[in-house]
Write a structure and sequence with these properties.
The chain has 10 helices and 11 strands. By secondary structure, it is α+β, with helices and mostly antiparallel strands.
Length: 306
Amino acid sequence: MNEFDLIKNYFQKLSQKSPSSLNLNDDVFFNKKNKLVVSVDTYTEGNHFINFNKPELVIKKIIRSSISDLICKGVQPKYYFISGSGNKKTFSKSNLSKISKSLNQEQKKYKIILSGGDTVFSNKLSFTITSIGFSKDIIYRNKAKINDDIYISGNLGDSYLGLLLLKNKIKLNKLLTKYFTNQYFMPNIQLKLIDHINKFANTSIDVSDGFFADMDKMINTQKLSYKLDLEKIPISNNLKKVLNLKKLSKINYISNGDDYQVLFTASRKNRRIIKKISSSYKIKLNQFLSKYFTNQYFMPNIQLRL
């Protein structure tokens, strides 16, 4: 059973008296009256990260992926809570010191504050992060408009190649290996976009599960179709180099997630302001998909039908 079926069949009814829960179909809880925005994520060893050999990097990855849920909604993360389950080996003094140092670095970088949490003894390592921000409004899912342009920040695919390197599924030189593994552990989330995205975005999501999966989630209750030119989906020069060298498929690398870039739609009338903000604040924003959304079905290069 996938996540959507699980929520729909067992939990959606439990949230019906709480409009702030957004029908359990968005990245966050949003209480408009109190301007409260909350996101919760759980990460387990062997599923969300390979192992705990580099605790200082694993903790950075899970913090950034968690606050990314708020960032894509146009909300500044303020507080975070972290709960961990593990044993004496995973939570050794050495590992705890490394974790503490990394958390301090992330707090300074993203202006967030550790505000609580919990620890539980277990032989299965996991972390749960609760991120909190405050805003009078957010960018919701399922608010795309007919004729919207579709944008994404940054590049896609680097993180997945980093994961393959960590799993020894592919071999590259030291310089490229360092670049891609850093992209996996320390995704370049778009904090600078927070102050601007509410000016133009109609709907948004962060790319965590892969481009196509997250595009699906972003418009999953709307009867919309879109088309795209695969060649225009942005990837880094380093990834282009590897794909060409190894003769690998681009679509496989953009479809596997962990990029944490912001995927959003915007009206055509906002093209100029988006371009200006991108240039002025040095935020890479790529308008790369169809010139339009449509409620009519068609046969484009690649089609998603809902």
